[in-house]
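Quick one from the shared queue. A colleague (R.T.) flagged Fe2OG dioxygenase domain-containing protein as missing a structural entry in our internal table.

Convert sequence to C-alpha coordinates.
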Amino acid sequence: MIGSYSRQNRIGLFFVFVATSKVGAKVPTSRKRVLPQTDMPGNSDAWNGIGGGAVNEKVRTQGSQDGTKDLLDNPNSSGFNPSNSRAHLFHALEGLDRYPNYLARWNESDINCLENALEEVLVKVCEQKRSILDQKKGIQALVGELLEADGDRWRNLLRPPTNWSEMQDGVLDSKAYCTIIAPRLFTQATPPTVRQILAAEVEIELDVGQLTCLMNEEMYDVYSLSILSESFCGRVREFVSEVSRLGQTEKYANLQMGRRPIDLDTIGLGWINDLLFYLILRPISRHLFESSESFGDLNWRQGYVAAYSANPTEGRPRAQLITHTDDSEVTLNIGLGENFTGGAIEFRGLRGTPEAGKLIGTIQPRVGVALIHAGRHFHDVTTVTSGDRFALVMWARSWGGIRQQACPCCWLNRRKDDHCVCGPSWN
Ligand SMILES: O=C(O)CCC(=O)C(=O)O
Ligand SMILES: [Fe+2]
Protein backbone atom coordinates (compact mmCIF):
# COMPACT_ATOMS: atom_id res chain seq x y z
CA MET A 1 0.00 0.00 0.00
CA ILE A 2 1.26 3.43 -0.80
CA GLY A 3 2.55 5.26 2.22
CA SER A 4 2.87 2.12 4.32
CA TYR A 5 5.92 -0.06 4.72
CA SER A 6 6.20 -3.24 2.79
CA ARG A 7 9.63 -4.26 1.70
CA GLN A 8 10.08 -4.48 -2.06
CA ASN A 9 6.44 -3.81 -2.42
CA ARG A 10 5.81 -3.20 -6.07
CA ILE A 11 3.84 -0.08 -6.28
CA GLY A 12 2.29 0.65 -9.55
CA LEU A 13 0.91 3.97 -10.38
CA PHE A 14 -0.89 4.96 -13.47
CA PHE A 15 -0.79 8.56 -14.32
CA VAL A 16 -4.00 10.16 -15.30
CA PHE A 17 -3.51 13.49 -16.88
CA VAL A 18 -6.25 15.95 -16.18
CA ALA A 19 -5.94 19.22 -17.98
CA THR A 20 -6.93 22.23 -15.97
CA SER A 21 -6.13 25.79 -16.78
CA LYS A 22 -3.29 27.32 -14.86
CA VAL A 23 -4.29 29.20 -11.79
CA GLY A 24 -2.14 29.99 -11.54
CA ALA A 25 12.95 46.47 2.21
CA LYS A 26 14.23 48.47 0.76
CA VAL A 27 17.92 47.85 1.56
CA PRO A 28 19.36 50.39 3.91
CA THR A 29 22.43 51.93 2.35
CA SER A 30 24.02 53.63 5.32
CA ARG A 31 23.91 50.89 7.89
CA LYS A 32 27.12 49.98 9.57
CA ARG A 33 28.54 46.65 8.63
CA VAL A 34 27.55 44.52 11.60
CA LEU A 35 27.64 41.09 10.11
CA PRO A 36 30.30 38.91 11.69
CA GLN A 37 32.46 36.84 9.37
CA THR A 38 30.29 33.93 8.38
CA ASP A 39 31.44 30.34 8.64
CA MET A 40 29.71 29.29 5.47
CA PRO A 41 31.93 27.57 2.98
CA GLY A 42 32.41 29.61 -0.09
CA ASN A 43 32.59 32.76 2.03
CA SER A 44 35.35 31.84 4.37
CA ASP A 45 38.93 31.73 3.24
CA ALA A 46 39.77 29.35 6.05
CA TRP A 47 37.34 26.69 4.88
CA ASN A 48 38.76 24.36 2.38
CA GLY A 49 35.68 22.19 1.86
CA ILE A 50 37.57 19.53 -0.10
CA GLY A 51 36.76 16.01 0.94
CA GLY A 52 34.40 17.14 3.66
CA GLY A 53 30.88 15.91 3.91
CA ALA A 54 28.98 18.62 5.69
CA VAL A 55 25.75 19.92 4.25
CA ASN A 56 24.65 22.43 6.82
CA GLU A 57 28.11 23.76 7.27
CA LYS A 58 27.52 26.74 9.48
CA VAL A 59 29.02 26.24 12.90
CA ARG A 60 26.14 26.79 15.26
CA THR A 61 26.62 29.18 18.14
CA GLN A 62 23.88 29.73 20.63
CA GLY A 63 25.38 32.33 22.94
CA SER A 64 26.19 31.76 26.59
CA GLN A 65 23.79 29.59 28.51
CA ASP A 66 23.15 31.78 31.53
CA GLY A 67 23.53 35.25 30.08
CA THR A 68 26.42 36.08 32.47
CA LYS A 69 28.87 36.59 29.63
CA ASP A 70 26.35 38.75 27.82
CA LEU A 71 26.01 40.91 30.92
CA LEU A 72 29.77 41.27 31.14
CA ASP A 73 29.93 42.24 27.46
CA ASN A 74 27.23 44.83 27.93
CA PRO A 75 26.57 45.90 31.54
CA ASN A 76 23.42 47.77 30.51
CA SER A 77 21.92 44.66 29.02
CA SER A 78 19.52 42.44 30.87
CA GLY A 79 21.23 39.39 29.38
CA PHE A 80 19.14 39.65 26.24
CA ASN A 81 21.45 38.81 23.36
CA PRO A 82 19.60 38.23 20.10
CA SER A 83 22.79 38.38 18.03
CA ASN A 84 24.14 35.24 19.65
CA SER A 85 20.95 33.52 20.67
CA ARG A 86 18.47 32.66 17.99
CA ALA A 87 15.96 31.83 20.71
CA HIS A 88 16.18 35.39 22.04
CA LEU A 89 15.64 36.74 18.55
CA PHE A 90 12.60 34.52 18.03
CA HIS A 91 11.19 35.58 21.42
CA ALA A 92 11.45 39.20 20.40
CA LEU A 93 9.85 38.59 16.99
CA GLU A 94 7.00 36.70 18.59
CA GLY A 95 6.49 39.47 21.15
CA LEU A 96 6.48 42.16 18.48
CA ASP A 97 3.88 40.26 16.56
CA ARG A 98 1.72 39.40 19.56
CA TYR A 99 1.65 42.35 21.92
CA PRO A 100 0.79 45.94 21.09
CA ASN A 101 3.55 48.35 21.98
CA TYR A 102 5.73 45.42 22.99
CA LEU A 103 8.92 47.39 23.45
CA ALA A 104 7.40 49.88 25.89
CA ARG A 105 8.70 47.89 28.85
CA TRP A 106 12.17 47.30 27.45
CA ASN A 107 15.27 49.20 28.39
CA GLU A 108 16.93 51.14 25.61
CA SER A 109 20.03 48.98 25.58
CA ASP A 110 18.01 45.84 24.84
CA ILE A 111 16.09 47.66 22.12
CA ASN A 112 19.44 48.62 20.58
CA CYS A 113 20.56 45.01 20.74
CA LEU A 114 17.39 43.93 18.97
CA GLU A 115 17.79 46.61 16.33
CA ASN A 116 21.38 45.48 15.69
CA ALA A 117 20.42 41.83 15.50
CA LEU A 118 17.71 42.57 12.93
CA GLU A 119 20.15 44.69 10.95
CA GLU A 120 22.59 41.81 10.99
CA VAL A 121 19.91 39.57 9.54
CA LEU A 122 19.12 42.11 6.86
CA VAL A 123 22.77 42.57 6.01
CA LYS A 124 23.09 38.82 5.65
CA VAL A 125 20.09 38.69 3.32
CA CYS A 126 21.44 41.55 1.20
CA GLU A 127 24.96 40.11 1.05
CA GLN A 128 23.80 36.66 0.09
CA LYS A 129 21.40 38.08 -2.48
CA ARG A 130 24.12 40.16 -4.06
CA SER A 131 26.68 37.39 -4.11
CA ILE A 132 24.20 34.84 -5.46
CA LEU A 133 23.08 37.16 -8.24
CA ASP A 134 26.72 37.91 -9.12
CA GLN A 135 27.52 34.22 -9.11
CA LYS A 136 24.54 33.40 -11.30
CA LYS A 137 25.55 36.03 -13.82
CA GLY A 138 29.10 34.69 -13.84
CA ILE A 139 27.96 31.10 -14.35
CA GLN A 140 25.64 32.14 -17.15
CA ALA A 141 28.55 33.85 -18.89
CA LEU A 142 30.55 30.68 -18.46
CA VAL A 143 27.78 28.57 -20.01
CA GLY A 144 27.61 31.08 -22.87
CA GLU A 145 31.33 30.51 -23.45
CA LEU A 146 30.83 26.73 -23.53
CA LEU A 147 28.06 27.15 -26.07
CA GLU A 148 30.14 29.40 -28.24
CA ALA A 149 33.03 26.95 -28.20
CA ASP A 150 31.00 23.81 -28.80
CA GLY A 151 27.37 24.74 -29.36
CA ASP A 152 26.48 21.64 -31.36
CA ARG A 153 27.53 19.41 -28.53
CA TRP A 154 25.32 21.04 -25.90
CA ARG A 155 22.46 22.74 -27.67
CA ASN A 156 20.28 19.64 -27.68
CA LEU A 157 20.61 19.23 -23.96
CA LEU A 158 19.89 22.86 -23.19
CA ARG A 159 16.86 23.00 -25.46
CA PRO A 160 13.85 21.27 -23.86
CA PRO A 161 12.22 18.51 -25.90
CA THR A 162 9.21 19.83 -27.73
CA ASN A 163 7.21 16.63 -28.14
CA TRP A 164 6.77 13.19 -26.61
CA SER A 165 8.79 11.45 -29.21
CA GLU A 166 11.85 13.59 -28.45
CA MET A 167 11.21 12.86 -24.81
CA GLN A 168 11.11 9.15 -25.56
CA ASP A 169 14.25 9.16 -27.69
CA GLY A 170 16.42 11.48 -25.71
CA VAL A 171 15.35 11.81 -22.10
CA LEU A 172 13.19 9.24 -20.39
CA ASP A 173 14.00 5.71 -19.48
CA SER A 174 12.11 3.47 -21.90
CA LYS A 175 10.16 1.75 -19.15
CA ALA A 176 9.18 5.07 -17.62
CA TYR A 177 8.10 6.28 -21.02
CA CYS A 178 5.95 3.25 -21.70
CA THR A 179 4.38 3.30 -18.27
CA ILE A 180 3.88 6.97 -17.73
CA ILE A 181 3.59 8.61 -21.05
CA ALA A 182 2.35 6.06 -23.55
CA PRO A 183 -0.71 7.70 -25.00
CA ARG A 184 -3.00 4.81 -24.18
CA LEU A 185 -2.69 5.74 -20.52
CA PHE A 186 -3.84 9.27 -20.94
CA THR A 187 -7.43 9.47 -19.90
CA GLN A 188 -8.33 12.57 -21.74
CA ALA A 189 -8.96 12.74 -25.44
CA THR A 190 -6.14 15.19 -26.03
CA PRO A 191 -3.07 14.36 -23.98
CA PRO A 192 -1.12 17.27 -22.56
CA THR A 193 1.81 18.43 -24.61
CA VAL A 194 5.36 18.48 -23.32
CA ARG A 195 5.28 22.26 -23.48
CA GLN A 196 2.14 22.41 -21.32
CA ILE A 197 3.73 20.23 -18.69
CA LEU A 198 7.00 22.17 -18.57
CA ALA A 199 5.07 25.44 -18.34
CA ALA A 200 2.84 24.02 -15.58
CA GLU A 201 -0.22 24.70 -17.67
CA VAL A 202 -1.78 21.36 -16.82
CA GLU A 203 -2.23 19.80 -13.44
CA ILE A 204 -1.15 16.19 -13.49
CA GLU A 205 -3.18 13.84 -11.39
CA LEU A 206 -2.23 10.37 -10.38
CA ASP A 207 -4.69 7.53 -10.14
CA VAL A 208 -3.54 5.42 -7.22
CA GLY A 209 -6.33 2.95 -7.83
CA GLN A 210 -4.64 1.56 -10.89
CA LEU A 211 -1.48 -0.09 -9.74
CA THR A 212 1.25 -1.15 -12.12
CA CYS A 213 4.81 -2.13 -11.49
CA LEU A 214 6.19 1.35 -11.82
CA MET A 215 7.56 1.95 -8.35
CA ASN A 216 9.31 0.00 -5.62
CA GLU A 217 9.03 0.73 -1.94
CA GLU A 218 12.67 0.14 -1.08
CA MET A 219 12.17 0.57 2.64
CA TYR A 220 9.96 2.60 4.88
CA ASP A 221 9.43 6.01 3.26
CA VAL A 222 11.89 5.45 0.41
CA TYR A 223 10.49 4.76 -3.04
CA SER A 224 12.27 4.19 -6.32
CA LEU A 225 11.41 4.39 -9.98
CA SER A 226 13.37 4.44 -13.21
CA ILE A 227 13.00 7.80 -14.81
CA LEU A 228 15.89 9.00 -16.97
CA SER A 229 17.69 7.07 -19.68
CA GLU A 230 21.32 6.20 -19.11
CA SER A 231 22.39 8.17 -22.15
CA PHE A 232 20.59 11.28 -20.94
CA CYS A 233 22.19 10.94 -17.50
CA GLY A 234 25.57 10.70 -19.23
CA ARG A 235 24.93 13.92 -21.15
CA VAL A 236 23.91 15.79 -18.00
CA ARG A 237 26.99 14.47 -16.22
CA GLU A 238 29.27 15.53 -19.07
CA PHE A 239 27.77 18.99 -19.26
CA VAL A 240 28.00 19.55 -15.51
CA SER A 241 31.60 18.31 -15.57
CA GLU A 242 32.43 20.75 -18.36
CA VAL A 243 30.79 23.63 -16.51
CA SER A 244 32.69 22.73 -13.41
CA ARG A 245 36.00 22.28 -15.31
CA LEU A 246 35.70 25.72 -16.85
CA GLY A 247 34.64 27.08 -13.47
CA GLN A 248 38.01 26.14 -12.08
CA THR A 249 40.00 28.06 -14.65
CA GLU A 250 41.51 31.32 -13.56
CA LYS A 251 38.98 33.39 -15.45
CA TYR A 252 36.11 32.02 -13.34
CA ALA A 253 37.96 31.25 -10.11
CA ASN A 254 36.13 34.07 -8.32
CA LEU A 255 32.89 32.15 -8.71
CA GLN A 256 34.16 29.48 -6.33
CA MET A 257 31.99 27.00 -8.15
CA GLY A 258 33.73 23.86 -7.05
CA ARG A 259 32.57 24.27 -3.52
CA ARG A 260 28.86 24.07 -4.17
CA PRO A 261 26.58 21.68 -5.97
CA ILE A 262 25.73 22.92 -9.46
CA ASP A 263 22.28 24.48 -9.69
CA LEU A 264 20.37 23.27 -12.74
CA ASP A 265 18.35 26.46 -13.24
CA THR A 266 21.52 28.53 -13.34
CA ILE A 267 23.27 26.43 -15.97
CA GLY A 268 20.28 26.44 -18.31
CA LEU A 269 18.85 23.04 -17.38
CA GLY A 270 15.81 24.37 -15.53
CA TRP A 271 13.57 22.43 -17.90
CA ILE A 272 14.79 19.19 -16.29
CA ASN A 273 13.66 20.56 -12.94
CA ASP A 274 10.27 21.43 -14.41
CA LEU A 275 9.88 18.03 -16.00
CA LEU A 276 10.76 16.11 -12.85
CA PHE A 277 8.76 18.40 -10.62
CA TYR A 278 5.50 18.74 -12.57
CA LEU A 279 5.38 15.34 -14.21
CA ILE A 280 6.75 13.18 -11.41
CA LEU A 281 7.42 14.62 -8.00
CA ARG A 282 4.39 16.78 -7.33
CA PRO A 283 1.73 14.30 -8.45
CA ILE A 284 3.42 11.32 -6.85
CA SER A 285 4.05 13.09 -3.55
CA ARG A 286 0.35 13.80 -3.11
CA HIS A 287 -0.14 10.09 -2.65
CA LEU A 288 3.12 8.69 -1.33
CA PHE A 289 3.33 10.86 1.72
CA GLU A 290 -0.23 11.74 2.50
CA SER A 291 -0.37 9.66 5.67
CA SER A 292 3.10 10.34 7.07
CA GLU A 293 3.68 13.96 6.17
CA SER A 294 1.29 16.86 6.19
CA PHE A 295 1.79 19.34 3.44
CA GLY A 296 -0.23 20.91 0.72
CA ASP A 297 0.77 20.64 -2.91
CA LEU A 298 4.48 21.04 -3.47
CA ASN A 299 5.11 24.42 -4.99
CA TRP A 300 8.85 25.10 -4.68
CA ARG A 301 11.74 23.17 -6.13
CA GLN A 302 15.47 23.40 -6.39
CA GLY A 303 17.41 20.92 -8.50
CA TYR A 304 21.18 20.51 -8.46
CA VAL A 305 23.94 18.08 -9.25
CA ALA A 306 26.14 16.96 -6.36
CA ALA A 307 29.55 15.60 -7.31
CA TYR A 308 31.74 13.30 -5.24
CA SER A 309 35.07 11.65 -5.81
CA ALA A 310 37.36 9.12 -4.19
CA ASN A 311 40.04 11.75 -4.81
CA PRO A 312 38.22 14.98 -4.03
CA THR A 313 39.14 18.06 -6.03
CA GLU A 314 37.56 21.48 -6.46
CA GLY A 315 35.08 20.20 -9.03
CA ARG A 316 34.13 17.11 -7.04
CA PRO A 317 34.70 18.39 -3.56
CA ARG A 318 33.24 15.60 -1.50
CA ALA A 319 34.07 12.01 -0.82
CA GLN A 320 31.03 11.49 1.39
CA LEU A 321 28.12 13.32 2.98
CA ILE A 322 27.32 13.36 6.67
CA THR A 323 23.97 12.32 8.08
CA HIS A 324 21.43 15.09 7.68
CA THR A 325 17.87 15.94 6.81
CA ASP A 326 16.97 18.18 3.88
CA ASP A 327 15.22 21.53 4.01
CA SER A 328 12.48 20.03 1.88
CA GLU A 329 9.18 18.27 2.29
CA VAL A 330 10.15 15.72 -0.35
CA THR A 331 13.50 14.95 -1.97
CA LEU A 332 14.09 13.23 -5.29
CA ASN A 333 17.54 11.82 -5.93
CA ILE A 334 18.56 10.39 -9.30
CA GLY A 335 21.83 8.53 -9.75
CA LEU A 336 23.79 9.96 -12.68
CA GLY A 337 26.77 7.59 -12.45
CA GLU A 338 29.56 7.26 -13.32
CA ASN A 339 31.69 4.25 -12.39
CA PHE A 340 32.38 4.35 -8.70
CA THR A 341 32.48 2.16 -5.63
CA GLY A 342 31.20 3.17 -2.22
CA GLY A 343 28.90 6.19 -2.31
CA ALA A 344 25.82 4.32 -1.06
CA ILE A 345 22.93 6.22 0.46
CA GLU A 346 22.09 5.18 3.99
CA PHE A 347 18.70 5.99 5.46
CA ARG A 348 18.35 6.46 9.18
CA GLY A 349 14.72 7.07 10.05
CA LEU A 350 12.49 10.12 10.11
CA ARG A 351 13.42 13.06 12.27
CA GLY A 352 10.91 13.39 15.07
CA THR A 353 10.17 9.63 15.25
CA PRO A 354 11.63 6.89 17.49
CA GLU A 355 13.50 5.47 14.47
CA ALA A 356 15.48 8.70 14.00
CA GLY A 357 19.18 7.87 13.79
CA LYS A 358 18.76 4.11 13.36
CA LEU A 359 20.04 2.65 10.14
CA ILE A 360 17.01 1.26 8.34
CA GLY A 361 18.46 0.59 4.91
CA THR A 362 21.20 1.23 2.38
CA ILE A 363 20.78 1.79 -1.34
CA GLN A 364 23.44 1.79 -4.03
CA PRO A 365 22.54 4.49 -6.58
CA ARG A 366 21.59 3.27 -10.05
CA VAL A 367 21.90 5.42 -13.14
CA GLY A 368 18.58 7.03 -14.05
CA VAL A 369 16.74 5.62 -11.06
CA ALA A 370 15.05 8.13 -8.78
CA LEU A 371 14.72 7.69 -5.04
CA ILE A 372 11.94 9.68 -3.47
CA HIS A 373 11.88 10.23 0.28
CA ALA A 374 10.64 12.70 2.86
CA GLY A 375 13.08 15.56 3.42
CA ARG A 376 13.09 14.82 7.14
CA HIS A 377 14.36 11.30 6.55
CA PHE A 378 17.92 11.20 7.92
CA HIS A 379 20.35 10.10 5.24
CA ASP A 380 24.02 10.18 4.37
CA VAL A 381 26.34 9.14 1.56
CA THR A 382 29.09 6.69 2.44
CA THR A 383 32.64 7.36 1.31
CA VAL A 384 33.29 6.99 -2.39
CA THR A 385 36.19 4.56 -2.49
CA SER A 386 36.96 4.72 -6.20
CA GLY A 387 35.82 6.80 -9.16
CA ASP A 388 33.53 9.83 -9.35
CA ARG A 389 29.90 9.88 -8.29
CA PHE A 390 27.18 12.27 -9.47
CA ALA A 391 23.61 12.66 -8.24
CA LEU A 392 20.82 14.89 -9.45
CA VAL A 393 18.97 15.99 -6.36
CA MET A 394 15.73 17.94 -6.14
CA TRP A 395 14.42 19.44 -2.93
CA ALA A 396 10.73 20.26 -3.09
CA ARG A 397 8.82 22.33 -0.56
CA SER A 398 5.29 23.24 0.16
CA TRP A 399 4.75 26.65 1.65
CA GLY A 400 1.23 25.60 2.57
CA GLY A 401 0.50 22.88 5.11
CA ILE A 402 2.77 22.48 8.09
CA ARG A 403 5.24 25.23 7.17
CA GLN A 404 2.39 27.69 7.45
CA GLN A 405 1.34 26.52 10.90
CA ALA A 406 4.55 25.63 12.68
CA CYS A 407 7.81 27.26 13.68
CA PRO A 408 10.94 25.82 12.01
CA CYS A 409 11.63 23.69 15.07
CA CYS A 410 8.20 22.04 15.10
CA TRP A 411 8.42 21.73 11.32
CA LEU A 412 11.72 19.89 11.53
CA ASN A 413 10.47 17.53 14.19
CA ARG A 414 6.95 17.28 12.83
CA ARG A 415 5.37 18.05 16.18
CA LYS A 416 1.70 17.98 15.57
CA ASP A 417 0.24 18.81 18.96
CA ASP A 418 -1.23 22.03 17.64
CA HIS A 419 0.49 24.07 20.31
CA CYS A 420 3.29 25.46 18.27
CA VAL A 421 3.65 29.19 18.76
CA CYS A 422 2.76 29.66 15.07
CA GLY A 423 -0.23 27.32 15.20
CA PRO A 424 -3.85 28.43 15.17
CA SER A 425 -4.63 27.30 18.71
CA TRP A 426 -1.61 28.58 20.57
CA ASN A 427 -2.49 30.94 23.36
O1 LIG B 1 24.39 12.58 -3.21
C1 LIG B 1 23.39 12.05 -2.78
O2 LIG B 1 22.99 10.97 -3.18
C2 LIG B 1 22.60 12.73 -1.69
C3 LIG B 1 22.75 14.21 -1.65
C4 LIG B 1 21.98 14.80 -0.53
O3 LIG B 1 21.54 14.14 0.37
C5 LIG B 1 21.72 16.24 -0.51
O4 LIG B 1 22.28 16.95 -1.36
O5 LIG B 1 20.96 16.69 0.36
FE1 LIG C 1 20.14 15.27 1.52
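The CA atoms of residues 61 and 84 lie 7 Å apart.
The domain at 81-147+217-413 is CATH 2.60.120.620 (Jelly Rolls).
Added to the table.
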